Amino acid sequence: MVRAAVGETTSYHSRMADPKSKSPAVRRRSAEAQVGSDVVEPAARVLRQFRLVFNAVKTHFAQVERQAGIGGAQVWALSVIRSSPGLSVNDLAQAMDVHQSTASNLVRTLVELNMIATEKNSADRRSLKLRIAAAGSKVLRRAPGPFAGVLPEALASLDADTLNRLSKDLGALLSALDADERAAGIPLGQM
Question: How much is the pTM?
Answer without folding.
Answer: 0.71
